[in-house]
Amino acid sequence: MSPITASDLMQMMAAAERRATVDEIAVPFLFLAFKAASSIAGSVLAVDGGYTAN
């Protein structure tokens, strides 16, 4: 049995219990680049699969 790495632990602790795809990471950032997001300021957008919700 191989040792558990920090990456493995983070994956297990995230609510999604899997790694995000490139698209799942890119879409929120693309949204923030559009005019529709112009009223969003001073906020943290956590794209972490629910890790910070635990």
Fold and architecture overview:
- The longest helix has 12 residues, at 22-33.
- This protein is mostly helical.
- It has a single domain (6-53), classed as Helicase, Ruva Protein, domain 3, CATH 1.10.8.
- The protein is elongated, with a radius of gyration of 14 Å.
- The protein is built from two helices and no strands.
What's the short story on this structure?
The protein is mainly α. It has helices at residues 6-13, 22-33. It has one domain (6-53): Helicase, Ruva Protein, domain 3 (Orthogonal Bundle), CATH 1.10.8.
What count of helical segments does DSSP give?
2
* Radius of gyration, taken over Cα atoms and rounded to an integer in Å: 14 Å
Number of domains: 1
Assign the CATH architecture: Orthogonal Bundle
Number of strands: 0
Task: Note the overall shape.
Answer: elongated
Helix proportion: 25-40%
Distance between the first and last residues' Cα: 27 Å
Attribute tags:
mainly alpha; elongated; 54 residues; Helicase, Ruva Protein, domain 3; single chain
Give the SSE map.
Layout: H1 6-13, H2 22-33
